[in-house]
Amino acid sequence: MSLMLEISHIDVFYGDVQVLWDVSFEVKKGEIVALIGANGSGKTTTLATISSLLRPRKGSVTYEGAPIHTRAAHDMVSLGIAHVPEARRLFPEMSVKENLLVGALAPEAKKARPEMLEKVFTIFPRLKERENQAAGTLSGGEQQMAAMARGLMSKPRLLMLDEPSLGLSPLLVGEIFRVIQEVHEQGVTVLLVEQNVFKTLSIADRAYVLENGRVVLEGTGKDLLANDHVKKAYLGL
Amino acid sequence: MSLLELSDVTKRFGGLQAVGHLSFRLEKGEILGLIGPNGAGKTTVFNVINGYYAPTGGEIRFKGERIDGKKPHEVCHLGLARTFQVVKPLARLSVLDNVMVSAFAKTSDRAAARTVALESIAFTGMDSWRDQPAGSLPLGMRKRLEMARALATKPELLLLDENFAGLNPSEVDATMGIVRKIHGSGVTILVIEHNMRVIMSISHRVLAINYGEKLAEGTPEQVANDPKVVEAYLGVAHA
User: Fold this and answer.
1) Which residue of B126, B170, B209, B234 to mutate against A (max A Cβ within 10 Å)?
2) The domain containing residue B137 runs over which residues?
3) Which residues in B104-121 are b (16+ Cβ under 10 Å) and which e?
4) ipTM above 0.90, yes or no
């Protein structure tokens, strides 16, 4: 498998506070890669850096062979990177359909709008039922689906998901993980940040463990599920 | 007399019934778990209890006194505090200042508020975050800050709205420890939570709702094995 994303020795700061320390990892085309770690370990910061919402003070982010850490955040979408942020960030007063269309603003994605809309409605039939409803009136689970669907509208090759199961009922958590696998089977590479460590490692090809802003462990999902440190620190076993 | 009693409580938003004819009691010293699908009306139940909304119909009593229609600050003064699912700390203030703001609900003395705030911060294990601006906290710590803020109002009844969301299993264990400690200090607790491991291990009783109405009520085991709850909420894999 060819290399899609390479994070190389990045240091990231908020003001004077260093949050990421010499973080390196890679995502190969076609993989599901997970980042796990405690609250405050730097997972969300890592995704924000890949999206160029933050600049690394040292190190580089390379995507499909080209450095992207010097580019603007709005360039990421046309490069094929979609970032579904923690807590969804929908436009509450806009309809579900309008929120989805906002996901396809880049010229290429705009042309494919009807086709993509149909595709995401097939994955999330619930959103089709509610396409004209204001996004702010959706339940938590529906909002998460809308946020993922909006990310998919840009026809991403790399989908970054930040805690997609947050606040969802057990039934919907299962549904979200099913959708992640379905999207992946359709050829999208996935970088997943999740607190549901067991389910995440079960579907991930590989995973990295972040602690205090450093990568401390890496391995296949299966290996990490069996790892004593992971069991104790993250699975509560 | 129950500590909290809802009788036939209904809340409508226009034509939408968010809570319908809901009745339940909470006894002093209990931990009651409130579960249900997303959109079932759990947070709306909290909102009518703490006075954020007045119910459309029905009665709510706290320590025997009618509280439906009272304002949130009045309900808070009676000893009923809550946390919020969507956390909104005062982002530029430190953790300590955020908790002090809550402590001012019960005292106007600055030194006293500081003492109470420091106690709440220590109680919730947030000492090392004390001087950080609240806006810089990761989500899991913001949820914990919610508990510290609620505790600083010295509640007899605490409503917890998804304080375990965004935590990994080990962090969930730590937060369960805090909730047990709060309960051990004499606080009655009503908790909304999707994490069934939490619900099953800390609740004395569980109430499941769907479409704003009661679906099941009983011991954690009874409710988790109720076919209606399995179908609407847990999914077959959990059964």
Assistant:
1) B170
2) 87-153
3) bbbeeeeeebbebbbbbb
4) no
